[in-house]
Specification:
Helix content: 25-40%
Number of helices: 12
Structural class: alpha/beta
Largest sheet: 7 strands, mixed
Order of helices and strands: EHHEHEHEHEHEHEEHHHEEHEEEH
Bound molecules: pyridoxal-5'-phosphate
Length: 351
């Protein structure tokens, strides 16, 4: 089993710019914290096994029936359940690489074969190659859009053209954990049009990023057909989503203005970070997410740069742990954190 590359530094205390895990730098709203705390008074009971209020809130927001919405203990939970439900020895799962570090677990846990398709020269998905790798053995395709760790997105027109090439019995999960931050994808309703066309498509999303609830673990999937939701529910324990997490997620959905504000601020900071990195003469991908992805020059060792940043109180992710050496993935943080990162990187590269 591949070991998930966990971020270090959670023990380092407050004076650290934690830019390693693509979290949201904004804390949950007081109303959201209050909703979660309120749920604790009923903690002697199991949570609602139908997750009805959250399912209903998502169904209302996205205009799809509640029975086509899968929920999970983070979207990772849904991903792993999809692997368990759909894969077995002899089957194949196809995805680009580097992409989200959890994807290799699906094949490893099920005995299926993982087909990893290299990204193109701009560190984007090469959907043409991904489609070429689909065979009679393929059960599942994973498309990370925007892609973690490289931050790039492919257009929905390209996804549409890709879906036309995929047989309808192959499940395609479009992992949209960062879609809210994407200018390429437009608004968060845009990809729902594809669900109407392709029953084998699943849009995987999370409350861990723009909604700022990473520690509570709530993910969801908007499914083109009900059978995906039934499949992932069948392989999991009944109570995978705790009551505080459910309550917080329902409340968070009621504050979309705040979500918009966060997105606007994050995109502005991201552009400033990209400029700062380019100003140092480095290549940086065109980001559609709440993090950036840069390549380091041949003249420096990735480990030295990561260590140098860490010694200056800045934690980032080394590309080697994410599938591509001599790269860094850096989360967009607060203005102060971003400046600290840019200054520290300049100092480290100056030697
Ligand atoms: C692309 C992608 N998908 C899914 C997830 C899982 O998020 P969670 O399990 O917190 O919902 C992450 C987390 O970093 C991610 O980067």
């Amino acid at each position: 089993m591949p070991v998930y590359p966990l971020a270090a530094g959670y023990d380092l205390g407050a004076d650290v710019a934690m830019l390693a895990s693509n979290e949201c730098c904004f804390a949950p709203l007081p109303e959201v914290v209050e909703a979660a705390a309120g749920a604790l008074t009923g903690a002697h009971r199991y949570p609602d096994p139908a997750y009805a209020p959250l399912r209903r809130a998502l169904a209302d927001r996205y205009g799809i029936p509640p029975q086509r919405i899968a929920l999970g203990n983070g979207s990772c939970d849904i991903l792993l359940a999809a692997g368990e439900a759909l894969l077995e020895p002899g089957a194949e799962v196809v995805y680009a690489w580097p992409a989200f570090s959890v994807y290799p677990h699906l094949a490893a846990a099920s005995g299926a074969r993982a087909i990893q398709v290299p990204l193109d020269d701009e560190d984007r998905h090469d959907l043409d190659q991904v489609a070429t790798e689909v065979t009679v053995a393929t059960r599942l395709v994973l498309i990370c859009n925007p892609n973690n760790p490289t931050s790039t997105a492919v257009s929905l027109d390209a996804i549409d053209a890709f879906m036309r090439r995929i047989p309808s019995h192959v499940a395609v999960i479009l992992d949209e954990a960062y879609c809210e931050f994407s200018l390429t994808l437009g608004d968060t309703y845009a990809s729902l049009d594809l669900l109407r066309k392709y029953p084998n498509l699943v849009l995987l999303r999370t409350f861990s990023k723009v909604y700022g609830l990473a520690a509570l673990r709530v993910g969801y999937a908007l499914c083109g057909a009900e059978d995906f939701r039934i499949a992932v529910d069948q392989v999991r324990q009944p109570f995978y989503l705790n009551a505080a997490a459910q309550a917080a997620a329902v409340e968070a959905l009621a504050h979309q203005d705040e979500v918009e504000r966060r997105v606007t601020e994050t995109i502005a900071s991201r552009l400033a970070m990209e400029d700062a990195v380019r100003g140092l003469g480095l290549w940086v991908a065109q980001s559609d997410a709440n993090f950036i992805w840069l390549h380091l020059p041949e003249t420096v060792e990735e480990a030295d740069v990561v260590a140098g940043l860490r010694s200056r109180g800045v934690l980032v992710r080394a590309g080697v742990a994410l599938g591509r050496e001599r790269s860094l993935r850096v989360t967009v943080g607060t203005d102060a954190e971003n400046e600290r990162f840019a200054d520290a990187l300049a100092a480290v590269l100056a030697g």
